[in-house]
Amino acid sequence: MSGTAADPRFASVRQAPRRQVRLSWSDPRLRNVFWQVVVIGAVVLLVWYLIGNTRRNLEARHIATGFGFLSQSAAIPIGESPIPYTPSVSTYGRALLIGILNTLRVSVIGVVLATVLGTLVGIGRLSKNLLVAKITAVYVETLRDIPVLLQLFFWYGLLQHLPAARQALHPIPGVFLSIRGIKLPDLIWEGAHSAAVVAFLIGAVLTWMWSRQAAQRQARTGRRPRTWPVALLLLIALPIGVWAALGAPFTLDVPALRGFNFQGGMTLSPEFAALLVGLVIYTSSYIAEIVRSGIEAVAQGQWEAAFALGLPHGLVLRQIVLPQALRVIVPPMTSQYLNLIKNSSLAVAIGYQDIVSIAGTTLNQTGQAIEGVAIIMAVYLTFSLSISAFMNWYNAHIALVER
Amino acid sequence: MAEIAAEAGVPFAARQRPPAKVVGPAAWARRNLFGSWWSTALTLVLGYLILRFAWGFFDWAVVHAIWTVPYDAQGHANSAPCRAQMGVGACWAVIADKYRFILFGFYPYDEQWRPLVCIALFLALYAISANRRFWRRELGLVWIVTLLLILLLMHGSETLGLTVVTDDRWGGLPLTLLLATFGLALAFPLAVAVALGRRSRTLPAVRLLCVVYVELIRGVPLISLLFMSSVMFPLFMPQGVNFDNLLRAQVAIILFAAAYLAEVVRGGLQALPKGQYEAADALGLSYGRKTRLIVLPQALRIVIPPLVNTFIGFFKDTSLVLIIGIYDLLQSGRAAVDDPVWQGFGNEVYVLLALIYFCFCFAMSKYSRGLERDFSRSRRR
To answer: Cys-Cys crosslink for B262: which of A7, A160, A269, B195, Cβ 3.0 to 4.6 Å?
Structure first.
């Protein structure tokens, strides 16, 4: 094909006749240009008009635009913050950073828990046990049809009905449920733990390299060296060995009731707990449906063919079924993760201080409406776009490679 | 069957019922509940948990529930009997006392028949639209007329003898239906336009504009748009012009819904076989006629089930407007228990609200699944 095109003898023949641009309404190119100019012009005019109005309004109200307020000290009391913060000393910038971190905290934990719960429920819907199948079906149908905000209010209301600290519920040792939140034992972090985490990460990289090596060996010789003993050694024995070599420190900070309040331990505030539970339960009902339809999308013949080849059950699941199911599951799962992150903005309704809540307070205190809303939108757009970029990459990675 | 058996020479008496191991309730239970050790264990544990939970709920909601409370001479409810039973039994008296506030918000008490008629009109509109016999051009007209009638009823007019009720006093279920229905009715044309723009090959600038719009809106939560409508909208308007809160929230919902609906419609446009576009071009139809007569009727038909699912999402999402201070169904329910008499009885009200939302959403999702089944059947044929 390309050979003929490059042939000089055909050059003059192959060239399409040049069409002249005529200033006529029947020329489609001219019409296209005209419509684009009209639409873009209308949008530009609208934006121009809105900006002009905004500028006049801001002048009339004596509001200066700009992000200078970020370095002013913020008078926002913040209940839970992962980084040090003092009201009226720390800046608005720091307060907003705390908001972002709080949003991330609830989103990351929520995504993990919702995936686990949703997968379990989704598999439960396919169970041969009628009771399990029916209960999970009712779970999914009910929770999907009730607004997530109502569910959040319900969970928050439930946590508000918990007893006072003196009469805290005590379901398992070291865990206290009271109106002040959920108290959990906390591991006292020491250098040995960090070293163990580093050892685990190194082990993970080495395991990955070993399994690549094994795959290459398999491609060359048809025999795959065992990977699981190496993985066991690198992922479990190595971190534990490092931890033990450094003295195996293990001290739990167990909460205990002293007087009217608890001391020690880790606290989950009622707001955080309600938000997390509400988001996880709501999102898991959607994830369950995605997982179910993904598994159902793998044709029965795939299972049968794999078994006919004599593959063991685990291998069939790992090498035949899951890769095909994942292809169906990943795109809608991405949008559920994004929904969970976006729904975490409902925190503002129950008083958990996420980015929307703190930006809202900032906006009220400083009057910088445009900047406040812009910050909220920028933060969520960054989250959304980076997650979709990652998931698109992952999806392309596992997608069916066709000719 | 009988002839075959007779030909094979099996005497009638030898034909017996299948053994009880294969059919009958015991076999059914064995197959579905006690298939294996694992399954039996699951059944027993789950069965126990369900029975306990169901009994606990029944005990709370029915056995120990309080349905009415005494009223004093001024007509104020006395919630003392409920307080005594708090945590043990449900207090449905709060709903008996407050149901009109939950359903209609601050709408004047004597005029509440008007929102009630509006709810009936909304329901009738949904019922007509759901019936495929009425899927004709006239349906659009019916929608416009009904929606205008609803607005007129809610707002009132002096010439008709209806007291004017400004929209800051609207609330409850009619408001939720209003936000959802108007939002979708107005977002839909915008969504179709955006979807067509995004599919356009010949107008790259328009396509870029549509892509940016859709991705921008879908990337941010609805709350941020509602915030924008409540704090930034006043800055956008010329001085002296001011929209009220409800209208601004409605605009935010329309812009938000249009982006999501546009993606659904785009899916339908993509699913349409290319031959349809080419055949329309070959007939020499203009872009407008091709779109109106060939593309949209087929593409929209394909996407009706996912569209209904999107509607369910928006119906639930209208509850978010309470964050900018609008008294929708959820907020009126919450406000009802702000009354010092009924403080602390939120769960009873939440159960009622959940039931109302559930009825609407479940009906829609049932309907969408039925349609999906019908469509896939007719496609297969």
So the answer is: B195
